[in-house]
Structure formats: C-alpha cells, structure tokens
Amino acid sequence: MGRDVTLRYIDPLAQVWLDAARRIGLRVTRTPDTYASTDGRGTLAIAVDRELDPDDSLAQMIFHELCHSLVEGEQSFTAPDWGMDNTGPDHDWREHAGLRVQWVLTGRHGLRTLFAPTTDFRAFWDGLSGDVLADRTDPSVQAAVAGLRRAERPPWGPALEDALAATARIAAEASRFASPGGPELAPLWTAIAPSPAPHPTGLPARMTAGAPEMTCGDCAWRYESRGRTRCRQVDATTRIDDAWPACERFEAALDCQTCGACCRAAYHSVEVSPRDPVVKKQPQLIVKRETYLELQRTGDRCAALHGGTIEAGTTTRYHCTIYDDRPRTCRDFTLGSEHCLTARRRVGLTL
User: Span 190-211, mean pLDDT?
Assistant: First the structure.
C-alpha cells in the first residue's frame, strides 16, 4: 500500500549549516559541475556528495567558504568566488588567512578534525599549531585577525557562532556512538575533541599546543589601575591574575614599526596646535583648514609614514620620516593604551 511522504530527512549538520548560510545571506545549491563557487548574487554552489572526498561534508564545505568571506569582507558577497581569482601573488596568503580563521574558530569548539579542509592547501593546515596569529607581520595573519573580528558582527554574527556551537553539541553526542572498528575508514566522529574551557575572563582560551607557555602577566594588554591588575581586552572592572594562562587575545609585545595603526587608517586626522614646533619645522606637511591645522595625509595614512608594503610575504617595517619633529599629539600617544588597542583593532592587527 502506498503512502504520502510528507517529510524528508536531512543530515543534522547539513541542516545547521544550510540555515546558517541562509541567515548570513546565502542560498546553497548542489552541483556536479564545480567544487565550490559563489556567483556574487547570493548563491553558493557546492559539489554533490559523490564529488566530495570521504572526509568532506556539506557542513564543512559551507563553513570553509564562510571563512573565505570573513577574510575578504562584506564586499565579497557581491563578487564571484569572494573576489578571489585563484591566481597571482596574493592568492596563497589569502588562502592561508582563511585557514587561520578556520583553525581558530574550530579550535574554540574542538572541531578541527571534523571541519578540516581537504583542498590543495591541506599541507598548510596540517602544519599549523599553537598561536597561529602570533606573527603580525605576516599578511595572512593580519587578514585572519580582521576576519575573526568580522565573525562577531552581522552578517556573520550570531549565525556563525550559533552553528559552531550546535555542531559541537551534535558532534559530542555522535562521538559517543562512533566505533573505529572494521576495515573501512574510521568515522570522523572518533576524532572529536572536547570544547576547551574558556579563559577566567570569559574570553576564549589560548591554544597552547606547540606554543610557548604565556600568562596574563606577560601580555601587552595588561595594565594597572588603582593598585589592581586589569586587561584592556575585557571590562575595566574585571581583576586579572598575572598567573592566569594567556587567553586567545594574548600579545607578548607591541612594536610600533610592525604596526603603524595610529598613523594610518585607524584615525583620519591628526590636529596640530599652531604653536607646535612641527608647524615651522615641517611646513610642507601642514594642512590649513578653516578652523584648525592638521598633518597632511596620503590616502589613508599620514604623509610622514613610510613602510607597510608586502615584500617576500612579509610586511615591511613602518617608520616616521619626521619622528624627531613629530607633533605633541603623536608624542602623547601611548603604546599599549586604550587608544592603541582601538587603533590596532581598526586596522586588523588585534582581536
């Protein structure tokens, strides 16, 4: 006897990530003609199951593409394939940036094996360990940091975090029933790791495997106020213990010459007092407005700032060509201050 079919089965992880993609603004289609691509008009095409590797899944493929979108930014939703042409000198570091984002986000939930990439860049992924955001002179690290900050706001947030948390819960339950026995490949569920406990501040914990052991007392964002130790990454009322292990946002030291944030896109104007010595010593750099004076800018940076180009995969060091004559506004800017943190966040150097 026939029956009316009123419901259909969908893999739970696929359901989670199809909904996440929808909330973020993408519709997902399946095709035998491409591995993964976007059309710049809201459609993400993913290969049908028979074209994927045994350790791929629709959920993992959607997540991987969303990591690309995080690196490339909001404008990438209107560009085919996130604006990546898979050629040219910038391709590799942009791919690496996406994988760094993927490494951090999956690490927060114990999902690195379940959601590991199976692309041609798998060797790069397998070589990652510890703090993959430590070298802020690497353009792929800078792009990854910017991507991770985007993950906290729309269109990605909160849908992306909701999907990762749901995946971790499903994976934890599935792993209880997974068995590695038999001649076939073991299921991915056997490699699920527990979600790491959060840092005492509530921030994500730092991944320490393969990384030097660091504490809050070693961090550049530690400061003292009214005799108590604080952290610029959390609410000013939160007390910090120097002995706590470092969190994900740990930075051991700040170097102005690898940063330059306060002199470029972070702030759009440096006002100068008419009595500041720089007005007479560097008149070619002074711009007179109707009611104030400011330093001249070239594009998104102070005209006196040089450096910051990418050479051999490294960002060249920044330097100020009028450092000895710099105005008081610049002299008063404090390394490691709240303004410093804001500047570095605005240019994608700090989480």
Answer: 86
